[in-house]
Design brief:
The protein is of the alpha+beta class. It has 18 helices and 19 strands.
Length: 472
């Protein structure tokens, strides 16, 4: 029996689970869950990385009181990072990708430059990619940029704080749009294009290998006697969630449903064709050298914001269950483009959505919350259907089913609407798929013969999926 601690840190909360692996299945126990949110200072949004680190240490201490911990793995969202000095000190708190300071640099690239970057990195040019934020920091905070010696992504920072080892993990590194998708190393050509030194990055880790041991100072602080290896897992949450898709078939489609909805499939090699570029598909590094060809689609962030604003308008809490009841009682169902830039980070999400629906002539007057809620769910499902169509066109594959992983898999209304709009069977998997993939990847440290397929077989034996059929 191996006991592995997994941190899954998202935009709205972070969770620490203890995974127990008996050689056949994984049993997971929630150790702690805490809220996580951007902190606004002036006109900038930051992440409190040190609070996350402290929270993880607290959970580690709690877990170790009752169980020997055999290993640790960390995964978070992508694209965000911190810069470090030559002495290894962080240069401030990490900026959030929802800041606007990087968007201007994407707009300076013409179509041919964007296509060339896509061919090199496999990554679609997007305002949230780390490279544009890095350019924004260089222009708006030149003294901070000048002091930078290394760049670590969010999970890399946590691994560094735990072990003292500087290492860049490949699935996270790919979200910078500075990694060569063909070699899985930093692209010197892309760095030259943006005037970035490749030395800003550390060595690239290998999944299933040890990054380093938990530092002596932390062991002393937490009164831990044993050494604990910190494992290089696919630390971009999407890559971990895809590893936890319990698919038996070789070719499968997935929706990793969280703050964002990542809709795609797993490939052995990147697809950097003009058709892929035109369809808005990106090639992120996945688990153990695989590629996740996917669309970075709007996700549950929209409905989370709408719920908060609905609660403020009604002056009382509104549960997710009540949201579903309201949606089912809505007098009408409307559609809007969930990926429109106006919904990226508006001051009021409900005002932005209702304004778009009013502009299109679908509604009029004051906000009707049931109509608002059902229209968000329906529009998300419609965007999923379009993504699946493009995915099939680009890959030449036909997907009869859609595996939904992540927190959004718990939303039965959205699952039903997704089956309805896509015409596919929806298989709702574990809501904690990200941390389940994290734990599965740690197994490979102890059992190096494991492959993504055999690890998925372990996952399949460990979860109970729910089926939503298309009734059309």
């Amino acid at each position: 029996m191996k006991h592995m601690l997994g941190l899954d840190c998202g935009n709205s909360s972070y969770r620490i689970f203890l995974g127990a692996y008996d050689g056949q299945t994984i049993r997971m126990e929630l150790i702690d869950q805490q809220p996580n949110a951007m902190i606004q200072v002036g006109d900038r949004f930051y992440w409190d990385i040190l609070a996350i680190f402290e929270g993880f240490k607290h959970a580690l201490r709690k877990a170790a009181e009752t169980q020997t911990i055999d290993s640790i793995g960390v995964c978070t969202w992508g694209v965000d990072f911190s810069l470090l000095t030559r002495e290894g000190q962080m240069l401030g708190y990490p900026l959030s990708y929802r800041n606007a300071i990087g968007a201007d640099f994407l707009n300076r690239l013409d179509a041919s430059q964007q296509a060339k970057l896509f061919e090199q990195t496999g990554i679609l040019c997007d305002r949230i990619n780390s490279v544009y934020m890095l350019q924004g920091i260089r222009e708006t905070m030149p003294s901070l940029y000048a002091a930078a010696d290394k760049l670590l992504m969010i999970p890399d920072i946590l691994n560094y704080l735990l072990t003292g080892v500087l290492q860049n993990e490949p699935s996270e590194l790919s979200t910078t749009q500075l990694m060569d998708v063909h070699t899985a190393q930093i692209s010197e050509e892309a760095c030259r294009m943006f005037g970035i030194s490749p030395t800003l990055f550390s060595s690239v880790g290998t999944h299933g290998k040890c990054i380093g041991m938990l530092s002596q100072s932390i062991r002393e602080e937490l009164n831990l006697e044993q050494e604990i290896p910190v494992i290089c897992v696919p630390s971009h949450d999407t890559a971990c969630a895809v590893l936890a898709v319990p698919a038996r078939e070789k070719d499968f489609a997935f929706i990793s449903s969280g703050t964002w909805s990542l809709i795609g499939t797993e490939l052995a090699a990147p697809r950097v064709t003009p058709e892929a570029l035109q369809s808005g598909l990106t090639n992120e590094m996945g688990a153990f050298g695989r590629i996740t060809l996917l669309k970075n689609n709007a996700g549950m962030y929209l409905i989370q914001r709408v719920r908060q604003e609905c609660e403020a308008a009604l002056g009382r809490p509104v549960s997710w269950g009540e949201m579903v009841v309201m949606a089912e009682q809505a007098p009408k169902r409307c559609l809007f483009d969930v990926n429109d830039s106006r919904f990226f980070n508006p001051a009021s999400m409900s005002a932005a959505i209702w304004g778009a629906l009013t502009q299109s002539g679908q509604v009029q007057g004051e906000v009707d919350w049931p109509t608002m809620i059902v229209s968000v769910y329906l529009s998300l499902a419609e965007s999923y259907a379009l993504c699946v169509q493009n995915l099939e066109k680009v890959t030449g594959k036909r997907f009869a089913s859609l595996y939904i992983v992540g927190g959004g898999s718990r939303n039965d209304l959205l699952n039903h609407l997704t089956a309805e709009r896509t015409g596919r069977t929806v298989i709702a998997c574990d809501g904690e798929s990200t941390v389940l993939g994290n734990i599965a990847a740690q197994i490979a440290y102890f059992e190096p013969e494991q492959t993504p397929e055999t690890l998925r077989a372990v996952v399949a034996r460990s979860v109970n999926a729910r089926i939503f059929e298309c009734n059309a």
